[in-house]
Amino acid sequence: MLTRRAAMFSAAAAVLMLANPATADDLNLPRQRVDLVAPPFVHAHEQATKETPKIMEFTLRIEEKKVVIDEQGTTFQAMTFNGSMPGPLMVVHEGDYVEVTLINPDTNTLPHNIDFHSATGALGGGALTLVNPGEQVVLRWKATRTGTFVYHCAPGGPMIPWHVVSGMNGAVMVLPRDGLNDGKGHPLHYDKIVYIGEQDMYVPKDEKGKFKSYDSPAKAYTDTIEVMRKLTPTHVVFNGKVGALTGKNALTANVGETVLVVHAQANRDSRPHLIGGHGDYVWETGKFSNPPETGLETWFIRGGSAGAALYTFQQPGIYAYVTHNLIEAAILGATAHFKVEGKWNDDLMTQVKAPAKIPPARIN
Amino acid sequence: MLIAFKLKLALACAAGLAGPLAIAPLLSEGGSPDRAMRDQQSMVELHPGAVSYRIAGDFTRAGKQANAPLVSVRFERSLSIMQHQVGAAEYQRCVDEAACPALDGNVTVAIDRPAVQVSWHDADAYAAWLSRKTGEHYRLPTDAEWAFAAGSKFGDDALPVDANDPSKRWIARYESESDRDADDSEAHAFGSFGANENGLLDISGNVWEWTSTCFVRTALDDAGATISKSSNCGVRVAEGRHRTYITDFIRDARSGGCAAGVPPNNLGFRLVREPNSWISSLASGLGKARVIARS
Question: Which of A28, A122, A287, B126 has the lowest CB atom count within 10 Å?
């Protein structure tokens, strides 16, 4: 307890030491430019850092594009940050400044902006970042809270949910400067990080029940809103499409490896569950200033938030990582697979007798 | 390669099937067999022969997971099997005559595309209807017959067996089944996946084919002799790029597979014709099926 309090105090002191710069130019901090990578991968980063706070520079380029979202070839008018659904995960440390250049190229058709749940003020930055096609904007916000947070486009009114369920959502992870801990003062590390963005999609169908295809986001709008109003998604997917993280694209790990899974859902509740595994340490609400829950079977990601789960694989095989509304997992698409290699542990599980006919009942 | 098929298209058009949707019963019901329909079936006649075949189903040996025995299956008689999968337009005729359940709205009903998203029962109903219409006996192939006809396109699904580590087998199967373009689920025109050495089109393309073989679990003793068998005919073997076992009422295995496997893209079927009538022996006697060039 004492250790933790002391740690918290020193963290608070470190933040206070930064003071409040009056203008942007007063920020006399080192800058670090980060090249973002598409999910499920995450750009290289330190888990704990000895460095002082920096200005972390990111670029998000908005891309409207038609994509295929399932094996049937259903098309979708996607709006994306950096071309992926979800947009990339941005990792910084508490006390860092996040400086985002948001570009809306003139090849796009709509105005867009960005609302960071991790930022303070101006609708998360949404009020300061509205850009028309052909414009760009630079926003800086201070990472004052640790945890995983959603960001999304929020250009006003019904545009907000439409842009979000069209793909304009992603996550930020603000790590404590001394890394993750179990809430009892013991540090926690991960060997690997996986970033899963779950998205509910609402694709209109024609009279015959066939999914419709549109030539532009605007043409899809009216029909899509009608489907959205029913609150019943036609697809619930991880990373932009059914099967984005299965088969050849399955996630991989080895027995003994510790994986941090960041799971973001910008719009709708979800219940991640690792079939055949657990959550060793889970920040269900995603905020690292709270102690993680331990040994979970299923955790809850509230719509509009991102959570994090740490797990050390103990058994080789294929694992399904699903939302445990299994209708959504198996029929609507929300399934990812982990292919885990290593040595089987008979103590944890063994097939004592292979499936065989039921033996005849004993007559006493 | 596609000459026979084009010939068939021409015949179909001449018979009034001008477009994919212009499907009308050609002959009176019930009475005499539909000759035009008989002629439309392009069959491939396979000469008697043998196939090296790993038996379908699950096997245990001395209580442990084991690969199925590899056997040689001999076909003493010739086997008459459809050159291509049953077409969506052909199937639609059966629907129009209320003998087959309707296709899903997503399925493109075209004369040169396979009927996909069909269950085993749908396939079985079609076989019964086609048999009634033509006066011949059509049925789904057994898994061994399918393997024989598939020839080099039939893959051995033996997997590494490590009695101490069930995950090895599981991962190996997952990897082998994942080795394909899972995104390509659209039903393509016949011939898009080429012909095998027997002239059969689209074997092991993106349409898996129902067989009549039930899911069987066999327990072998240490020496490999059968101790017991339990059979579940509610699950049938579907063949394609990999062998799979599917519940018979499933039409779309993409969303009917288990949590951590790789399901087939599409479910369709082709039929074999029993040599039980003068017309079929005449057709094969004329060498109609052998017209198909081996390119």
Answer: A28
